[in-house]
Specification:
The chain is α+β, with helices and mostly antiparallel strands. 24% of the residues lie in helices and 18% in strands. Strands 2-3-1-4 form a 4-stranded antiparallel sheet. A hairpin with a 5-residue loop joins strand 6 and strand 7. Helix 1 runs parallel beside helix 4 and helix 4 runs antiparallel to helix 5.
C-alpha cells in the first residue's frame, strides 16, 4: 500500500482534532447536568450538587476540578479504581498541539457531565463506546491532567514556558527503571468507583485524540477497602497514606501543594502543582517470608492497626525527640526517614496518594504486583527529591523495586468554558 504524502497526513490529523473538539463541545451543551461554572462556586468544594444529588468521595473534589484556580481533584482521596496513562504528543505543529489540549479538556468535561451521546447519523462512528450503557452517567469520573518536561522541548516553541522544577524523572540508587515505562509528554490520571468507568473514559479520550497523541505507558490501580477500619492497606499488608498535609487547610496547601507567584516559576504555572508518579514493584515472595517483627520495624508501625510503634492510636504523632536512639521506632524505619517531623523538614512534606496494582505474573513466574505511588508538591526538588534521598538504602529497598513513572506539571484549574488546560501557553 502506498503511503499518503506527509502533507495529507497532517491535514487529516488536524481535521480529526478539529472534529473531536467540535463534537465534544457540541455534545456538552446538551448534557443533563451542568457543573458549577463560577470560580467562587468551584472553590467551595463541599457545596451540594445543583440537582441536590448525593456525592461519592470521588465526586466531592471533582465537582470543582474543572472550574476555579486549581485542579481540585488533586485533593481528593483515591477512588476505588484508577489508571495513570502517559502519552507522547505526535501533533505536527503548535496549532495542532493547542487543538489537542482543547479536545482533551472538552472530552473530560463531557465525560464528567454525562448525558446522552451525540448521534451523527446511521453511517457515522458512534460518539460513545457504550460500555456504560446508552447514557453516560454523570459525575462518575475524576481527572488529573499533567505535562512532562519533554513537551517543553523545541518541537512547539514552549521551552521558555517550562515549569522551574520540571525535569525528566531522576534515577535513584536501588531503582530499576524501565525506559519504556518512564516519562512522557502528557499524563492523565483517571479515577472512578468502578473499573469500567475508568476504561470508558480512557477509550473515549484516546479515540478523540488519535493523531494528536498516543499512549506511551499505562498502569491500572485499585484501592483496597479498610480492613477492618481506618486507612486502606497496600499489598505489603500495611496501612498506606496515614500521614498527609491537611487538604482542608488553605495555608498548608499554599505552602506545600499549589505553585505561588513571586518564585522562579513562569507566570502561567501559578495555581498548578507537580505530580510525581512512581511504579513500585513489590517483591512479594520475599516479603512474605519476613517475620512480622522485622516488617514492623522496617515500616515503623504495627501492621494490624497502623499505630506507630511508640503510640497507641493510628493517627498519633510519633515522638521522635523522646526516642533519639531509635529504641521504639528504628532510625532506619520508613516512616521516620520519609518524615522526620522536625521544623527544618516541614517544608519538605508531600501529599501522598497511592493505588495497589496487580499485573499477573512475570516471565519468571513471579507475582507482578505493587504500588502506584503518586504525590503532589509545590516543588519537586525541595519536596520529593529531598524526601526520596533520605530513603536511599533504607531496609525496605530489599523488598521493593521502582520500575517506572515520571515527573509532570499539573496546570491550574479552568476559568469556565471554553477555557482549556494549558491555554496560557498559546495566549
Amino acid at each position: 500500500m502506498t503511503r499518503a504524502p506527509m502533507t495529507r497526513d497532517r491535514l487529516t490529523r488536524r481535521r480529526f482534532l478539529q472534529a473531536g473538539t467540535l463534537a465534544a463541545g457540541g455534545a456538552a451543551v446538551g448534557t443533563s447536568v451542568d457543573l458549577a461554572t463560577s470560580p467562587g462556586a468551584a472553590a467551595a468544594a463541599p457545596a451540594a450538587f445543583p440537582d441536590g444529588a448525593s456525592r461519592t468521595p470521588a465526586e466531592a473534589a471533582q465537582l470543582a476540578s474543572f472550574e476555579g484556580p486549581h485542579q481540585l481533584a488533586v485533593l481528593s482521596e483515591p477512588t476505588q479504581a484508577a489508571a495513570v496513562v502517559s502519552f507522547n504528543v505526535i501533533a505536527d505543529s503548535r496549532s495542532e498541539l493547542e487543538e489537542l489540549l482543547q479536545t482533551i479538556t472538552a472530552r473530560m468535561r463531557l465525560l464528567y457531565k454525562g448525558g446522552l451521546p451525540q448521534n451523527a447519523g446511521p453511517a457515522a462512528p458512534t460518539d460513545d463506546n457504550g460500555i456504560l450503557g446508552p447514557v453516560i452517567p454523570s459525575r462518575q469520573v475524576a481527572f488529573i491532567f499533567g505535562m512532562g518536561a519533554s513537551l517543553f522541548d523545541d518541537r512547539y516553541g514552549l521551552s521558555s514556558y517550562r515549569p522551574a522544577t520540571l525535569t525528566k524523572m531522576d534515577t535513584f540508587p536501588n531503582d530499576n527503571l524501565d525506559p519504556a515505562q518512564c516519562d512522557g509528554d502528557l499524563v492523565l490520571q483517571i479515577g472512578a468507583e468502578d473499573a469500567d468507568t475508568v476504561i470508558h473514559a480512557l477509550r473515549d479520550i484516546t479515540k478523540h485524540t488519535r493523531g494528536g497523541m498516543q499512549p506511551l505507558w499505562r498502569i491500572d490501580g485499585f484501592k483496597s477497602p479498610p480492613r477492618p477500619s481506618g486507612t486502606p492497606r497496600n499489598l505489603l499488608g500495611f496501612m498506606d497514606g496515614i500521614s498527609n498535609p491537611d487538604t482542608a487547610d488553605p495555608e498548608q496547601m499554599n505552602q506545600l501543594i499549589w505553585v505561588q507567584g513571586g518564585s522562579d516559576e513562569p507566570d502561567w504555572a501559578r495555581g498548578g502543582t507537580y505530580i510525581v508518579v512512581r511504579i513500585i514493584r513489590m517483591l512479594i515472595e520475599f516479603w512474605d517470608r519476613v517475620s512480622l517483627y522485622e516488617q514492623e520495624n522496617m515500616i515503623g508501625r504495627r501492621r494490624a492497626t497502623g499505630v506507630p510503634l511508640d503510640a497507641n492510636s493510628e493517627y498519633a504523632t510519633p515522638d521522635y525527640a523522646a526516642d533519639p536512639e531509635g529504641y521504639m521506632i528504628p532510625l532506619t524505619a520508613h516512616m521516620r526517614l520519609a518524615n522526620p517531623r522536625t521544623p527544618a523538614t516541614e517544608k519538605n512534606r508531600i501529599m501522598r496518594r497511592g493505588y495497589n496494582y496487580d499485573r499477573g505474573i512475570d516471565e519468571n513466574g513471579n507475582l507482578d504486583m505493587g504500588l502506584v505511588f503518586t504525590c503532589f508538591q509545590q516543588d519537586i526538588r525541595r519536596q520529593f527529591v529531598v524526601t526520596q534521598t533520605r530513603l536511599i538504602n533504607e531496609p525496605l529497598v530489599d523488598y521493593i523495586s521502582p520500575i517506572g513513572g515520571g515527573y509532570f506539571f499539573c496546570p491550574r484549574g479552568l476559568d469556565g468554558e471554553p477555557d482549556y488546560f494549558g491555554s496560557e501557553l498559546f495566549a
